[in-house]
Amino acid sequence: MCSKDVSAVASPIEIVETTVNTAQSLYTGVSLRLADIGYLLKQIAEISKHPPFDCTFSDMYPIHEYKMGLKTKISFVCKMCNIERTIHLIEETDGEMDINSVLALATVSTGSGYSTINEMLSVLNVPFMSNSTYQQHHENVADIIEETAWKVVEEAGQEEARIAQELGEVDESGIPMITVVADGVWSKRSYFVNYNASSGIVGLYNWC
Length: 208
What we know:
The strands form two sheets. A five-stranded antiparallel β-sheet has the order 1-2-3-4-5, covered by helices on one side. The chain is of the alpha+beta class and about 210 residues long. Helix 2 (about 100-110) packs across helix 4. It has four helices and seven strands; from the N terminus they run E-E-H-E-E-E-H-H-H-E-E. The protein is elongated, with a radius of gyration of 26 Å. The longest helix is centred in the C-terminal third of the chain and has 36 residues, at about 130-165.
């Protein structure tokens, strides 16, 4: 069995390929994989009873595994007709975040980091992505979070403006007047000397 990291060739995303000799089974010493069981069974059903000899999936054996983070696809070859087919463990859909980006989002949402998730998956014996691959997905997720946050803020502002107009709370120019409460904080520490952070946070809340 041989593994190849081609991350330095294409992009920071790590791609690991594993090729199996005919006399060596991919099932030997294999770790766990993340899979969509419904999608996996659907693909197995599609390649069963394949022409020209109506061979079944039981006549096929794995010859190649391709991993990119938590995404995995496995190539099978039929020992009867020599036909080769590839099965994806998780369906890839256009316009949606893949499983790697979803995990990066979950990591950010729970206040964790790469080391925590990597250790957890290692205990579960699930291969994880490299740190460089994770950081790329993390950056993509950060952009999505920012875009979503601005969209929510804009929608909330439009709704508040509509309510203000309905209540007649507008100025002479007809601009909606929305009452808000503001507050701000910044960190202060004292380790025998005073320390004030140069940054802080401000919150604006609608006053209903």
